[in-house]
Design a protein that fits this description.
Blueprint lengths: L16 E5 L6 H10 L7 E4 L3 H11 L2 H6 L3 H7 L2 E4 L4 H10 L23 E5 L6 H6 L8 H21 L5 E6 L6 E3 L17 E3 H5 L5 E7 L12 E9 L7 E10 L2 E6 L1
Parallel strand pairs: 1-5, 1-8, 2-3, 2-4, 4-5
Antiparallel strand pairs: 6-7, 8-9, 9-10, 10-11
Helix pairs in contact: 5-7
């Protein structure tokens, strides 16, 4: 079973697609990938993010104590080697990559490119912080950027379609997980804006929150949130967090977990209730 936490506990219920939103801990995608590759020596995962620097900076700032202790160990190092981490810098690069991935077929004379050739069908595809492709343009120039809802949506649909294809070619199936902590900030027009109209015109394209639109594409929705109540915690206090899991289209969570995140000189520790 898969997990978002150190030591791979608690475990998530089975899913084929999962959307994670809110202030998740930076190491959650790494723990998810490792919990997957820990299940079998043949299992593998693909991790796709807009920026290596984005991932590295977030992990360094969070400083997960479990990863700091175990990442150099033989078993964890071997599991990590089966996580293929790629950083397509633009939506076009990501779309091309998802369209170009292939698994070698026995007896095929087709020439394979090393960057897009997978040793075996991955059982897990992780999409990481896709909103980073769009937010800087949207927030710096909200009236004339080129992006629409379909710019984001098409990337997710490509990944889901690729997973469906892989599942038809292998016994284990392939799951897709989207992590996006900034999705709540992303609003995009449904259609491209018409620059011939004044900003106040009724014909100006209206922006829609992307997060709620994306939820219908996922079987399970996970929402992280701060759980400190109404009090303002001091820097020395542990951060109280909660994860609610929902089935698509349902208002009540099917599961939830609460925990404390404590920071020390040795890193950040997670203590579950």
């Amino acid at each position: 079973m898969l997990s978002l936490f150190p030591g791979f506990e608690p475990q998530l219920p089975s899913f084929t697609s999962l959307m994670i939103q809110g202030p998740y801990h930076a190491s959650a995608p790494i723990h998810l990938a490792l919990s997957h590759t820990s299940q079998a020596n043949s299992s593998s995962a693909v991790f796709l993010s807009p920026s290596r620097q984005l991932v590295t900076a977030a992990l360094q700032e969070y400083n997960d104590s479990w990863l700091a202790t175990h990442s150099g160990q033989g078993r964890v190092s071997e599991m990590s080697s089966r996580v293929n981490m790629l950083y397509p810098p633009t939506p076009t690069h990501l779309a091309f990559l998802l369209a170009s991935f292939e698994v070698p077929q026995p007896g095929s004379a087709h020439t394979l490119h090393p960057k897009t050739t997978l040793d075996a069908p991955p059982g897990l595809i992780i999409l990481h912080e896709l909103s980073a492709y769009f937010l800087s343009d949207v927030e710096s120039d909200p009236t004339s950027h080129p992006w629409t809802v379909s710019s984001y949506m098409s990337l997710v649909i490509r990944a889901l379609s690729f997973a469906t294809f892989l599942s038809s070619e292998s016994l284990g199936g392939t799951s897709v997980v989207l992590f996006d902590s900034q999705l709540h900030r992303l609003k995009l027009p449904v259609v491209k804006q018409d620059y011939h109209y004044d900003n106040e015109s009724q014909n100006r394209a209206q922006s829609e929150a992307v997060g709620p639109l994306m939820q219908k594409y996922f079987q399970t929705i996970g929402t992280f949130q701060q759980d400190n109540g109404n009090s303002e915690p001091s820097k020395s206090d542990p951060t109280r967090k909660r994860l609610n899991l929902y089935k698509a289209g349902q208002d009540d969570p099917v599961n939830f977990w609460s925990w404390n995140e404590k920071r020390s000189g040795l890193g950040t520790f997670i203590e579950h209730d």
